[in-house]
Amino acid sequence: MIEFKNLSLTYPNGTKGLKNINIKINEGEFVVIVGLSGAGKSTFIRSINRLVTPTEGELVVDGENILNHNGKSLRELRKKVGMIFQSYNLVKRSTVLKNVISGRLGYTGTLKSIFNMFPKEDMELAYENLKRVNIEEKLYNRADELSGGQQQRVSIARVLTQKPKVILADEPVASLDPPTSHQVMKYLKQINQEDNITTIVNLHFIDMAMEYADRIIGMRAGEVVYDGPASEVTEQTFEEIYGRAIREEDMRGGEENE
Amino acid sequence: MSNRIPPKPKSPAKVVKRIIIAIAVIALYVWTITSVNIDWGKIFSQRTIDNFDRIIPKFFDPAFGETGEILIKMVETIFIAYTGSLAAAIIAIPLAFLCATNMVRNKFLNTIGMWILGAVRAFPEIILAIIFVAAVGPNPFAGVLAIAIGSTGMLGKLYSEVIEGIDMHIIEAMEASGANKLQILFYGIMPQVLPEFLSYAIYRFEIDVRASSVLGIVGAGGIGTLIHFAYSNRNWDEVGMILLVIIVTVTIIDQISSFIRRRLV
């Protein structure tokens, strides 16, 4: 469970990233955060694994207030909270397998990992996860030989290999075309349901948010302006969140045809 | 009415500034050329032509009889360059990380690293060779040390630029998965920088072969020793042979190195 208690974040230049957030996210939920760019979605998500540090309030993840974590305790937190990025962030010159196994680094001793001595189970887990996202045949390819959608699937496999309790995804489909976007979201949804991993996704596409989310949180100017089940959300709600009429660019469209 | 581009605004201050700069540059040239005392008469005198006549033809009639000894010394030269650049390629790595502003987030330490590399770069190899010959005696080891120290300055600078150009998002992704600093170094940073490091190290080896050819003149081993002896005895045909061997070797090494470097990056 993740709980934001009166959480605020002020950047050193005085910009308010988050303003007094109070939210509870339950285990196994699939939450989509929507909002225009600059609304604080990224700051919200990055607070949970402390890539940014909120300045006031409390943030409880898995029963602990994480705001004072540092060094070892911070790495322990990050082992539990996996993350997927818009630009995939794979090491392009390394193989797919090496990228995926790097999800185990937090669990592996420094010396062992430097000499590439991962336990057999970990290697099998990495391969298993590549199979789950249907990219196992690219095992020994270099990451830069893969298309964007394939790279994002590899990064999902990497995050799964980390065996997280929570997956954060920061605009995971913003660099992809519509069919590939749906494919990636389907994998995320499937993993969320099968493994009961709490999943928090930043999106700015209205149609995708409504299709995949259990719950939608709307943000504007660092504040939560909407919080409710996806089933109750209408286009009207989005117009309120965005503070303007819905435009074509807010839709991803192009349902995957299989 | 018309679509003409508006005229560029003219400012008298700018024109005056340009004239002053032009005068300063011309004055500098006049000053330097007059103070080095170029004796045009001497350049085209009969004596110069006679001297060239004596030396140049000997260059084109190299002493092939000396090939064996020259080749042995050429190989020694390559070994000096290889050992020296290998040592530099390794010493430069920690210094490069110290200088890279995205790795060591401390302006003071960055500046210290830059100063070390800058100071090292300021010494020509031949001066370093003189110092090391004095320190460890007239042998190839002095040459190796001179090459190693001389190359560290350049490699460290180039390496640190490579490090500053890496994709930091990958580092962020690894931090976000709970990897520690050393693991990030080996899994996130090294794969990104190693091919470029290697490419620069090979390029530097190429330069070092040329540089180490002359180190022998001050006693630091290699083919320069032979140049020194041959030149002292006015054996121009032997100097010609040595030059021929150097030119051929350097050309071959340049070709091999650029071939390898093309495939690396």
UniProtKB/TrEMBL annotation, chain A:
InterPro entries: AAA+_ATPase (IPR003593), ABC_transporter-like_ATP-bd (IPR003439), ABC_transporter-like_CS (IPR017871), ABC_transpr_PhnC (IPR012693), MetN_ABC_transporter-like (IPR050086), P-loop_NTPase (IPR027417). Keywords: ATP-binding, Cell membrane, Membrane, Nucleotide-binding, Phosphonate transport, Translocase, Transport. The keyword Lipid metabolism does not apply. The keyword Magnesium does not apply. One of its GO terms (molecular function) is ATP binding. It holds the Pfam family ABC_tran. It comes from the Bacteria. GO terms for cellular component: membrane. Residues 2-246 form the ABC transporter domain. PANTHER family: AMINO ACID IMPORT ATP-BINDING PROTEIN, PHOSPHONATES IMPORT ATP-BINDING PROTEIN PHNC. This is Phosphonate ABC transporter ATP-binding protein. It comes from Aquibacillus koreensis.
TrEMBL record, chain B:
Its main location: other. One of its GO terms (molecular function) is ABC-type phosphonate transporter activity. It is found in: Cell envelope; Cell membrane; Membrane. Residues 74-257 form the ABC transmembrane type-1 domain. Keywords: Membrane, Transmembrane, Transmembrane helix, Transport. The chain crosses the membrane at residues 20-38, 79-100, 112-135, 141-159, 214-233, 239-260. It holds the Pfam family BPD_transp_1. The keyword Ribonucleoprotein does not apply. GO terms for cellular component: cell envelope; plasma membrane. It is a multi-pass membrane protein. The keyword Transmembrane applies. Belongs to the binding-protein-dependent transport system permease family. PANTHER family: ABC TRANSPORTER, PERMEASE PROTEIN CC0363, PUTATIVE-RELATED (PTHR30043:SF8), PHOSPHONATES TRANSPORT SYSTEM PERMEASE PROTEIN (PTHR30043). This is Phosphonate ABC transporter, permease protein PhnE. It comes from Aquibacillus koreensis.
